[in-house]
UniProtKB/TrEMBL annotation:
The chain crosses the membrane at residues 14-34, 39-59, 65-86, 98-121, 141-159, 228-249, 255-271. Keywords: Membrane, Transmembrane, Transmembrane helix, Transport. The keyword Transport applies. It is found in: Cell membrane; Membrane. Pfam families: ABC-3. This is Metal ABC transporter permease.
Length: 284
């Protein structure tokens, strides 16, 4: 496997991008889960699908756009979706959760239209839906690296504000924190991570990498920072194991990564149950 990675550039791109995504997706996912915004990742992933499908349609219809990287329009659609979610949340102040299914439905609708206009599913679109080891270009890797820098800088400079907002939104607003703008920037960063992760994990599965490692870590940690660290560890294990499995068995990496993360979750849950049973037996 190591020899293959050293020999083929596409494997170098895939594993480098995977390692980066294995850090930034669970890192941002911790704040998403704690703030109970998990469904937002699903909504933005479907909006990203519409952007990708639209880009593939344009590349078929307009000769000058044939070489356009679909990732760019996917990122634009994801960011636009995050802005629209925030706009709708402000319009429906007492029913903010309505914004998520509205944008999710819009993403699915536009995605279906562009897929039909682009004459159905193609290998490229299948790769975006479920990830592809061979499709990650050096340009994709550079985009993912740029997104990672933005995410890490945002978390570093606004960690305290995000922490307060995650656990006590009302206190954060009362204390004078610019909660609205921080949440807006958080949504933009989330959109970037979702769009950047789709080459490896796939549009339909990227939200899983942002939530399942966090759910696994929460079963064994006792503090917020521990949850962040273990979420990243579980995310990296899932990505590396998933990519290796996908390479050897010629499978979609998104599926292998998600199945690995679910297996880790079940393993941790079983371990906790066994430890609780042993403690009860010892007390008895």
């Amino acid at each position: 496997m190591i020899q293959a990675i050293l020999s083929y550039e596409f494997l170098q791109n895939a594993f480098a991008a995977g390692l980066i995504i294995g850090v930034i997706a669970p890192l941002l996912g911790v704040f998403i889960v704690v703030r109970r915004l998990s469904l937002i990742a699903d909504a933005l992933s479907h909006v990203t699908l519409a952007g990708i499908a639209g880009s593939l349609y344009l590349s078929q219809s307009v000769a000058s756009l044939a070489l356009l990287n679909p990732l760019f329009l996917g990122i634009a659609a994801s960011v636009a979706g995050s802005v629209l979610i925030e706009r709708l949340r402000s319009l429906y102040k007492h029913y903010e959760e309505l914004a998520i299914p509205i944008i999710l439905s819009a993403g699915i609708g536009f995605g279906a239209i562009f897929i039909s206009l682009a004459q159905g599913f193609s290998n490229d679109l299948f790769g975006y839906l479920f990830g592809s080891v061979s499709a990650v270009s050096r340009e994709d890797l550079l985009i993912v690296a740029g997104i990672a820098i933005v995410v890490l800088a945002f978390i570093y400079f606004f960690f305290k504000e995000l922490f307060v907002l995650s656990f006590d939104d009302e206190y954060a607003r009362a204390s004078g924190l610019p909660a609205k703008w921080i949440h807006f920037m958080f949504m933009i960063v989330t959109a970037l991570v979702i769009a950047g992760s789709m080459r490896i994990v796939g549009i339909l599965l990227v939200s899983s990498l942002m939530t399942i490692p966090v759910a696994t870590a929460m079963r064994v940690t006792k503090s917020f920072k521990q949850t962040i660290v273990l979420s990243i560890v579980f995310g990296e294990v899932s990505v590396i194991t998933g990519l290796v499995t996908a390479f050897y068995f010629d499978l979609a990496p998104g599926g292998t990564i998600v199945v690995t993360s679910i297996f880790l979750l079940l393993l941790v849950i079983s371990y906790k149950k066994i430890m609780v049973s042993l403690k009860k037996g010892a007390i008895a």
